[in-house]
Amino acid sequence: MASIFSTNKPKRFEHVSHFTKNERKQWLEARVRKVKREMGELPDEELKAEEIIRGTFIQGTKHLKRRKEKEDAEGGQGNRYIKLAVAIVVMIIIFVYLIKSI
């Protein structure tokens, strides 16, 4: 009789990707290799194809190169969020003013 009132919990689904290891670990290893290469501890010959190709499309197009330079100069994505927040506050103020004037 007790089994009617108690139900079993479903099994948890855990997907383990077989094609990639830990993405954070791969990023960290690539960063360490890059820094060691810049410091002169590793020869430049050890470049992987992925590291050579990464960023070449951006460097090959004018508009993407300008956007990347502009984001680097402005400090990244933070400036965009500040503009969005200011725009929302201004819209709320206008909306409240319109509601009170009716």
Protein model, in words:
The protein is an all-alpha fold and 102 residues long. The chain is 67% helix and 0% strand. It contains 6 helices and no strands. It is flat. The relative contact order is 0.04. The mean pLDDT is 79.
Q: How would the blueprint of this fold be written?
A:
Layout: H1 2-5, H2 23-39, H3 49-53, H4 56-60, H5 62-74, H6 78-101
Question: What descriptors fit this protein?
Answer:
single chain, 102 residues, mainly alpha, 67% helix, flat
Helix content: 55-70%
Q: Which outline best applies?
A: flat
For the termini, the CA-CA separation is: 65 Å
Q: Which spans of ≥5 residues are poorly predicted at pLDDT below 50?
A: none
Task: Give a quick account of the main beta sheet: strands, pairing sense, barrel closure.
Answer: none
Mean pLDDT: 79
The fraction of residues in strands falls at: under 5%
| Assembly context of the chains | single chain
**What Rg is obtained from the alpha carbons, in whole angstroms?**
26 Å
User: Structural class given helices, strands, pairing?
Assistant: mainly alpha
Order of helices and strands: HHHHHH
**Helical run tally:** 6
The number of distinct β-strands equals 0
Write a short abstract of this structure.
The protein is an all-alpha fold. It is built from six helices and no strands.
